[in-house]
Design a protein that fits this description.
Elements lengths: L1 H13 L61 H7 L12 E2 L8 H11 L3 E2 L2 H8 L7 E2 L5 E3 L4 H14 L3 E4 L16 E4 L6 E5 L4 E4 L5 H8 L4 E2 L10 H7 L6 H4 L2 H4 E7 L5 E3 L13 H5 L8 E8 L1 E2 L3 E8 L3 H13 L6 E5 L1 H11 L8 E8 L1 H16 L4 E6 L2 H12 L1 H8 L4 E4 L2 E2 L5 H14 L3 E7 L4 E8 L4 H19 L19 H5 L1 H14 L18
Parallel strand pairs: 1-3, 4-6, 5-6
Antiparallel strand pairs: 2-4, 7-8, 8-12, 9-13, 10-11, 10-12, 14-16, 14-17, 15-16, 15-20, 18-21, 19-21, 20-21
Protein name: D-lactate dehydrogenase (cytochrome)
Organism: Camelina sativa
Subcellular location: Mitochondrion
């Protein structure tokens, strides 16, 4: 059965990150799951609610009467008393609740007819899909059923059936997201896209490729290598192309090539009613109608399921140089990153790691790196051009208290240097066994980066928790790994306090709460301050128009207190 091999691969991939879970025996019974207590029962606080919608028969206006979600004018105490979905203003709870309704047996029968053996109600499988592998976020419920479609036609039939019965659908890609995107707070159907991973067409002369959403970016680049091409985004290992579109991710190469928004030419998306929409042609530019491609990128599975992606490709660089330099403070390092970008040099990567992160790498991997704030650069182009870039940046670093500047051109030497960056997160887990990581994702205009990192670093160093800084310093995006014991409530609250501090600091500098990880459930509470209630109400209207039954990844992206 398809789900068995998928589960085996996934558990192997993430076993070194998490302590083993005590899972319960399998059962085909479809009822509410409480992973924390291991019992299948309906929580005592659960109450039924009225159907939340009354929509006027007009294409231009809505009357939205929601009895399960509070009005924008209601207080936070009203939110608490109703046990609504977590994520609204001021929320700090990591447990995501949702109104559960048992999946009808008739729907299960329909899904079995559509998918045959590519469906499971096995408890272990459902629990695995309901608990994000890289995230401390958790939900009271897990999916009732996990399905593994093999084609766009099957996806369309699945969504049409779920929409008929008003059953929630949670799209599932590479399981690398960290903001609770794949939680199933209302149960329902988890649609795992891992079997849809074909390369459908490669156009070498046009430098684009058409793929299904389940293929990983690493797999894709292995396929493209023999053609001298590559896809230039590099998020976490294991990320799938569909999930990367859904979260509008980027990575260390975004400073040179842009984010997912800039590298997707067109999409095919199945809407909640089963309709299949092509968002654009394969032309490199178009002014034809609304930009539906950009609407779907970053929608986090709340508007539809992506079934096909046309990607822009790049030529594999002729030559590259990797350089590393140390600094006395993170501000000095950030200043160099800004100065490098202002110089006009077209770097492909500028990564910053603080001294705590370097210490973690030393401890985890037996290295002897200088434990100081460190910048890593990558330059690409011809051999002469990359060496010229390296020399210019070396001069810039020397003007900003840089030391121990070194660079590598040989493939193995470059690979060894980049391992410092690639192993950063795993080093944090190794340094704090049994701990979870609360990973921040703020991004600010580049001119504010040094100030934000300096202000945050002061707060992090004063905390009792282990906190490391990792930044995509060339585009103003930086992460902190805040390690905390999930069983210690004081540590969790301290981690949340630090996260709040950095987000609100970034917002005060015209920045964002998330540069590349997306919103999910974890970042919803910051959106009103960042975007304003009018923007959120507009998003809600779009969501309501495309998904009137609210079946697509409910409880994500749009805060629950937003009404119109």
């Amino acid at each position: 059965m398809a789900f068995s091999s998928r589960l085996a691969r996934s558990k192997t991939a993430f076993s070194f990150l998490r302590k083993s879970r005590q899972l319960h025996s399998s059962t085909p019974k479809l009822t509410v799951i409480s992973p924390e207590k291991g019992r299948r029962r309906l929580p005592s606080w659960w109450s039924s609610s009225l159907l939340p919608l009354a929509i006027a028969a007009s294409a231009s206006s809505y009357v939205y009467l929601n009895h399960s979600l509070p009005s924008i004018s209601e207080s936070s105490s009203a939110l608490d008393s109703r046990d609504v979905t977590i994520g609204g203003k001021g929320s700090t709870e990591p447990l995501v609740k949702g109104e559960y309704k048992e999946v009808p047996k008739e729907l299960i029968t329909q899904l079995k007819t559509i998918l045959e053996d590519n469906l499971t109600t096995d408890y272990d499988e459902r629990y695995f899909h309901g608990k994000p592998q890289n995230s401390f976020h958790k939900a009271l419920n897990i999916p009732d059923v996990v399905v593994f479609p093999r084609s766009e036609e099957e996806v369309s039939k699945i969504l049409k059936s779920c929409n008929e019965y008003k059953v929630p659908i949670v799209p599932y890609g590479g399981a690398t997201s960290i903001e609770g995107h794949t939680l199933a707070p209302k149960g329902g159907v988890c649609i795992d896209m891992s079997l849809m991973k074909r390369v459908k067409a490669l156009h070498v002369e046009d430098m684009d490729v058409v793929v299904e959403p389940g293929i990983g970016w690493l797999e894709l680049n292995e396929y493209l290598e023999e053609y001298g091409l590559f896809f230039p985004l590099d998020p976490g290992p294991g990320a799938s192309i569909g999930g990367m579109c859904a979260t509008r991710c980027s990575g260390s190469l975004a400073v040179r090539y842009g984010t997912m928004r800039d590298n997707v030419i067109s999409l095919k998306v199945v809407l909640p009613n089963g309709d299949v929409v092509m968002t654009a042609s394969r032309a490199r530019k178009s002014a034809a109608g609304y930009d539906l491609t950009r609407l779907m990128i970053g929608s986090e599975g709340t508007l539809g399921v992506i079934t096909e992606v046309t990607l822009r490709l790049q030529k594999i660089p002729q030559h590259s140089v990797v350089a590393v330099c140390n600094f006395p403070t993170v501000k000095d390092a950030a200043d160099v990153a800004i100065a490098t970008m202002m110089s006009g040099i077209q770097v492909s990567r500028v990564e910053l790691l603080d001294e705590v992160q370097i210490r973690a790498i030393n401890m985890a991997n037996g290295k002897n790196l200088n434990e100081a704030p460190t910048l890593m650069f990558e330059f690409i182009g011809t051999e002469a051009y990359t060496r010229e870039q390296t020399e210019i940046v070396q001069q810039i670093t020397s003007n900003h208290n840089g030391s121990d500047f070194m660079f590598a051109e040989e493939p193995e030497a470059k690979k060894e240097l980049w391992k410092i960056r690639k192993e950063a997160l795993w080093a944090c887990y190794a340094m704090a066994p049994g701990h979870e990581a609360m990973i921040t994702d703020v991004c600010v205009p580049l001119s504010h980066l040094a100030e934000l990192i300096s202000r945050s670093k002061k707060e992090l160093d004063a905390s009792s928790l282990l906190c490391t800084v990792i930044a995509h310093a060339g585009d103003g995006n930086f992460h902190t790994c805040i390690m905390f014991d999930p069983s210690n409530e004081e540590q969790r609250k301290e981690a949340e306090r630090l996260n709040h501090f950095m987000v609100h600091s970034a917002l005060s500098m015209d920045g964002t709460c998330t540069g590349e990880h997306g919103v999910g459930t974890g970042k919803m509470k910051y959106l009103e301050k960042e975007l304003g209630i009018e923007a959120l109400q507009t998003m809600k209207r779009i969501k309501k128009t495309l998904d009137p039954n609210d079946i697509m990844n409910p409880g994500k992206l749009i805060p629950p207190h937003v009404c119109f």
